[in-house]
Design a protein that fits this description.
The chain is mainly β and 90 residues long. The chain has 1 helix and 5 strands; from the N terminus they run βββαββ. Strands 1-2-3-5-4 form a 5-stranded mixed beta barrel. The radius of gyration is 14 Å and the shape is globular. The two termini are 14 Å apart.
């Protein structure tokens, strides 16, 4: 999917260890004019774009895909959450 968005917030670049691997991420709060949503750059994209500074005053084109993740609450209930994974943000 590709759409025009405004960046509301850049949560920055971070790395963490998982099963002996170093995973990277960079999260954003985006607004497409109808909804605002959380979007995340996956490890390889985040590493490539970790030093990129985005202009919050102008629109950007984002490419990526939605995914649904099954999760479990502390009380044992299962639920789903949607995440948008960014493949390109220009």
């Amino acid at each position: 999917m590709e759409k025009q968005v405004k960046i509301l917030q850049d949560f920055g670049y971070s790395e963490h260890e998982y099963n002996g691997d170093t995973l990277a991420e960079r999260g954003f709060l985006l607004d497409d004019g109808i909804d605002f949503f959380y979007a995340e750059m996956s490890s390889s994209v985040a590493k490539r774009e970790k030093d990129t500074t985005y202009d919050f005053t102008r629109p950007h084109m984002v490419q990526g895909a939605w995914t649904a993740k099954k999760r479990q609450a502390q009380d044992g209930r299962e639920f789903y959450s949607n995440v948008f994974y960014i493949s390109k943000l220009k």
